[in-house]
Write a structure and sequence with these properties.
- This protein is of the alpha+beta class and 144 residues long.
- Helices cover 16% and strands 36% of the residues.
- The chain has one domain.
- It contains two helices and ten strands; from the N terminus they run E-E-E-H-E-E-E-E-E-E-E-H.
- The strands form three sheets. Strands 1-4-7-8-9-10 form a six-stranded antiparallel sheet, with helices on both faces. It has a two-stranded antiparallel sheet with strand order 2-3. A two-stranded antiparallel sheet has the order 5-6.
């Protein structure tokens, strides 16, 4: 099956330390306490059509990063999909408690995206992670 996106794992543990892009890790550390959730999975979603879920500004289309931030426990997998604006972020959807129903956030329908995919795209992303768990490897360390 041809997917309209790719997913890139962003964190790993080497020699007992977490490694990954500092800006993405700091972003996750900043936003996840706001929804009372830790994280041990972090990945970037890139859309094959660069216009997908981007906004039109005066200078052209935005170039937002999309991050999946999740928590893998013993019996549950919770995932969130975020737009990373740098200093802040907007959660677009959440998938939780092994109920693979992606819930779109209030903000998702309020943004004027150039190419507005919707529930089907979000569901496809979450389903892909569930079916291919190796794309976002959970890391286990106390402070994450």
């Amino acid at each position: 099956m041809e997917y309209s996106f790719t997913i890139q794992n962003l964190i790993k543990i080497e020699n007992g330390k977490i490694h990954g892009p500092l800006s993405s890790i700091l972003f996750a550390e900043k936003v996840m306490p706001g929804i009372s959730m830790g994280f041990n999975r972090l990945a970037r979603v890139q859309f094959k059509d660069y216009q997908t879920l981007q906004q039109l500004e005066i200078a052209g289309l935005t170039d937002h990063n999309f991050l999946i931030i999740g928590y893998q426990g013993k019996i549950q997998l919770d995932m969130t999909l975020w737009i990373d604006y740098g200093e802040y972020g907007i959660m677009l959807a959440k998938c939780y408690n092994n109920k693979w129903e992606a819930g779109l956030s209030y903000c998702f329908n309020k943004f004027p995206f150039e190419i507005m995919e919707g529930y089907d795209l979000i569901r496809e992303i979450f389903d892909y992670v569930v079916k291919h768990p190796v794309v976002i490897v959970p890391v286990y360390q106390d402070h994450v």
